[in-house]
């Protein structure tokens, strides 16, 4: 069935370092891949997304790459700051509108 | 900036009771979704809704669940007879132009079933 695997489950970095979170998806028909940031007790907030006709997208310190052949996509955060600490979820959208989420990565940025 | 809103923020109920969770999607959005997140776990899709009918539902969305758009602004999720395992955060989301559009999430309703 439709599934999204996300790694690592926890990630601790020093302020200023880069952080990379990786996801793989099972349904080759998936065409949209958003990333959400969720702070404790709050709603998931979209931070960046990529569609299947694009291989890479960047927005300031955040970038996402997509490898459709490998069914793999990644989130890259450069120059991390303490306020980047949160749980990050990747998601994939197979046919239709629903999003299939990964298990989440708890990112901790230490000052 | 318009946001999805949800009420209540926290609902405590006894097992077997009915609950209704309410959502007000962004005003010009046409596609509506419910997701749930059990504490410490990932967000799971429950149901999608368009043009006053269910577009898709997951295995979680059994006969105990129903959704409704009773008027032009509200979108509700009803759980008829709550179970302990229904305890979770329930998120409503909406998107504008279709399934390909970005989904914006509400702040969630934390449901606690005792």
Describe the 3D structure.
The complex is a heterodimer of chains A (111) and B (114). Chain A has strands at 4-7, 10-14, 19-25, 32-38, 45-51, 56-59, 62-67, 72-77, 86-92, 100-101, 105-110. By secondary structure, chain A is mostly beta strands. In chain A, strands 2, 4, 5, 9, 10 and 11 form a six-stranded mixed β-sheet that branches. In chain A, a hairpin with a 2-residue loop joins strand 6 (56-59) and strand 7 (62-67). Chain A is globular. The model of chain A has no long low-confidence stretch (mean pLDDT 94). With 114 residues, chain B is mainly beta. Chain B has no helices and eleven strands. Chain B has strands at 5-7, 10-13, 19-24, 31-37, 43-50, 53-57, 65-68, 75-79, 88-95, 104-105, 109-113. In chain B, the strands form two sheets. In chain B, strands 2, 4, 5, 6, 9, 10 and 11 form a seven-stranded mixed β-sheet that branches. A four-stranded antiparallel β-sheet of chain B has the order 1-3-8-7, with no helix packed on it. Chain A binds chain B through residues 31-32, 34, 36, 42-46, 49, 89, 91, 93, 96-104, and chain B through 31, 33, 35, 41-45, 48, 50, 55-56, 58, 91, 95, 98-100, 102-108.
Helix content of chain A: under 10%
Oligomer: heterodimer
SSE order of chain A, as H and E?
EEEEEEEEEEE
Could you say which structural class the secondary elements and strand pairing of chain B correspond to?
mainly beta
Poorly predicted runs of chain B are: none
Shape of chain B: globular
Total number of beta strands of chain A: 11
Integer average pLDDT of chain A: 94
**Biggest pleated-sheet summary of chain B:** 7 strands, mixed
Helix percent band of chain B = under 10%
User: Pair with the most extensive interface?
Assistant: A-B, 22 and 25 residues
Globular, elongated, flat, extended or rod-shaped: what is the shape of chain A? globular
Strand-pairing-aware structural class of chain A:
mainly beta
- Helical segment count of chain B: 0
Gyration radius from CA atoms of chain A, angstroms = 13 Å
Largest sheet of chain A: 6 strands, mixed
